[in-house]
Amino acid sequence: MLIFNHSSFLTFTLMGIPGLESQHLWLSLPFFSMFLAILIGNGAILFLVATEPTLHTPMYLLLALLMVADLISTLALLPKLLCLFWFNDRDIASNACFTQMFFIHGASVVRSALLVTMAFDRFVAVCEPLYYNAILSHSLVGRLGLMALAKGVILVLPMPLLLRRLTFCHMVIPHTYCDHMAVVKMACDHTRPNRIYGLIVILLVVGLDLLLIGCSYGLILQAVVRLKSRDATFKALNTCSAHFFVIIVTYVPALFSSLTHRIGLNIPPQAHILLGNLYLLLPSMLNPIIYGIKMKEIQGKVARCLCREPT
């Protein structure tokens, strides 16, 4: 068995989607379409929030931060994936691999933390509407954004650092990107600390964040039940609908992908790898669509930009 050290000169090979190598060129079409949709959709939301003073509210500032996290995750993943599919560029240096891993997983942690913050935003909007602007000031939104960033860095940075101490027996990663668990399986050392830490991160991110989001929505539903007006009830629920759909799109594929990695369900590796890509890309692609459909302010600004006559 060949033993490779963990120096910075180490090079991994990304296999892509095992068993579907001959279909990589065709598979690149939906991925490239998603890439364009993510860049255009998230870029448009960011442009509107940046240029429209009426959108400089806590909810839209948090939405803009979510769009930034989505763009970082996408830019860390898709350029290398498309090079693999189009030009058969499979090699990736270990430092580049660990850097890609950090930005992909770090952006996912930041996204989850921002969804918790947005749940708190919806709780204040529904339960304390008169004090909304006083509670969620711009300075608080900035601090919450920095806390989300710090959470992503603190939780994800140990992953590549722990991997750097390992010796690797296998260099071909059966994936389209440097997923943490996929790289851990390449090592011939004792990887229990890496696996345990990865599980701890999932529990802290998905488990704790979902618990906090659930608590926020429990308090929201408690407040909505006490409303006597049907119109007020509908308005309160509609206020939270976009955020709720984003939660479903974000957490359901992520939970399924993480569980299949660790429990080892008998699903084809091609399906697992495709799901591993989609759980990163689907939220980034659908978030602008969901908020564009549900938020009348965004619809109005987009319509005004499209219908604006040249002077």
Task: Explain this structure.
The structure is a single chain. This protein is mainly α and 311 residues long. It has helices at residues 24-51, 58-87, 94-127, 132-135, 138-156, 158-163, 180-184, 192-225, 230-263, 269-294, 296-307; strands at residues 11-14, 91-93, 172-173. It has a 3-stranded mixed beta sheet with strand order 2-1-3. The chain starts with 10 loop residues before the first strand and ends with a helix.
Summary?
The chain is built from eleven helices and three strands, in the order βααβααααβααααα.
Primary descriptors:
globular, mainly alpha, 311 residues, three-stranded mixed beta sheet, 11 helices, 3 strands
**Class of secondary structure makeup:** mainly alpha
Order of helices and strands: EHHEHHHHEHHHHH
Identify the quaternary structure here: single chain
- Uncertain regions: pLDDT < 50 for 5+ in a row? none
**Termini separation:** 71 Å
Going across the biggest sheet, name each strand in turn: 2-1-3
Number of helices: 11
What does the radius of gyration come to? Answer: 21 Å
Number of strands: 3
Averaged pLDDT: 88
Shape: globular
* Residue share in β-strands: under 5%
Largest sheet: 3 strands, mixed
Give the topology, please.
Blueprint: E1 11-14, H1 24-51, H2 58-87, E2 91-93, H3 94-127, H4 132-135, H5 138-156, H6 158-163, E3 172-173, H7 180-184, H8 192-225, H9 230-263, H10 269-294, H11 296-307
Parallel strand pairs: 1-3
Antiparallel strand pairs: 1-2
